[in-house]
Amino acid sequence: MIVYDMVDSNTPHLLIAGETGSGKSSMVRVILATLIQHMSPEHLHLYLGDLKNSEFHFLRRVKHVKYVCMEEHEMTSMLSKLWKEVLYRRKVMEEYELGHIDEYNQITKDKPLPYIFIAIDEVAMLQDEKECVTIIEKISAVGRSLGIFLMLSMQRPDAKILDGKLKLNLTVRMGFKCADLINSNIVGTPGSENLSQSGQMILKLDGLKKVQAPFLALDQAKEIIEPYRLSKEQSVQKEEQEHQEDKIFGVLDDANE
Question: Which residues form the FtsK domain (predicted)?
Answer without folding.
Answer: 1-185
